[in-house]
Task: structure prediction
Amino acid sequence: MYRLSRFLIFLLLLSFVSGLHSQTNGILGRKFFNNWSVSLSGGPNVFFGDLKMNPILPSTTPPTDELRFAGTFSLNRQLSHVFMLRLQVLYGEIAGGKINASDGSPVNRFFEGNILEYNLNTTINLSNLFGKYNPKRFFFVYMTLGAGISSWNTKVRDINTQQPIYGKDSSMNWTYALVVPAGLGCYFSIRDKVNLGLEWTLRGVNSNQIDHSTQSNPYEAYSLLALTLTYNFNKPSSGSKLSAASPQKQIGPPPPQPVLAAEIAAEKQNEQILKNQASYPQLGSPVPAKDSLQPKQAEPETDTIQKEEIKKDTNTAVAPETGISYRVQVFAIKENTFSAEQVEQKFKLSQPVTKEFSAGWYRYTIGSFATFSEAKKLMTGLQSKKQVHDAFIVKYIDGNRAAPSSSKTVKNSKGKKGNPKPATKE
Result:
């Protein structure tokens, strides 16, 4: 027992100084008062000693009904993704009996009473110790080892006559001894902060006085098979829920908005051309005189991009198959976690969502417009009505996402009370 106690103390010190990596089933907090949890457990408590009918299983028939129950309360502190320290209290009943000894001589004794135990133990997560660490693991196996003080108040009686042999109904009749609990357990994460577990522990006692019999065993023990419910105070929520496409909620900053000052100026120029065409009557081309010696002048070339935008209906949200188009990005993430349909349902969008992957990001966009102004109308509507505050416009050339510019920035919208949002790059 002395060597076992020294080994246990060494193991507990090792768990204190071990590196703080991650919580058993989540992310480990950095403050001391983080990473705490409480546990409640209960189940059958079985005695092992001289007064016991069967070697392992308890007798459940009178007059030697040995099946009793006990429960524990634990205050837990997560030290790393492998080690957890627990301060535990156990209280319950204990019983055992024997009719005949192994040599056939009569014994006819039965004891029962209460047991109270205090211990400090550590759990070792075997799943994380020997397997690859996974903070989202919903099932894990662990072992436990500890030391403490066990006390009991038991009474022995004769099975045939029911007369008491040993024990008094007095608070001074409690006996104390060193106890070493060791066992195995497993946990299931059933909710964000709740674990459901099953744990079996064998609790060896440095005494043979629980049943007040000194026939053969110098040490006695009792085992508890308990169903455990654990509540974690600071376990963070899992990342399975979608949120608005904001830099604080999505993984990493969103890709910069591809808006250039030159493009806005070109867009305004195109709108002015359309207004001028609507204000003045359309005139046919002049016919030159036959005797004119003046050569026919070549028509001035018009920018191809402007021609294409003039021909398109600005109210139609359809982008050309080739050339420049604009889309509105609503969400981005570096993990391939969500489908386009999930993003569409989450933000309650009426337009279909397009999912694409580029530069290490999974990006989700809606709409495809030939002009910047139409894309801006959709972006403004999303920001005001759909509460997608960080939606922004992305430029595409021939169906491919345009590379961002590092030199020019513009302000694309205003926040509440006219306060401008920070400018973003293309």
Observations:
- The first strand starts at residue 36 and ends at 48.
- The domain at 239-265+312-426 is CATH 3.30.70.1070 (Alpha-Beta Plaits).
- The longest helix spans residues 261-279.
- Helices lie at 2-17, 126-130, 261-279, 304-311, 340-346, 372-384.
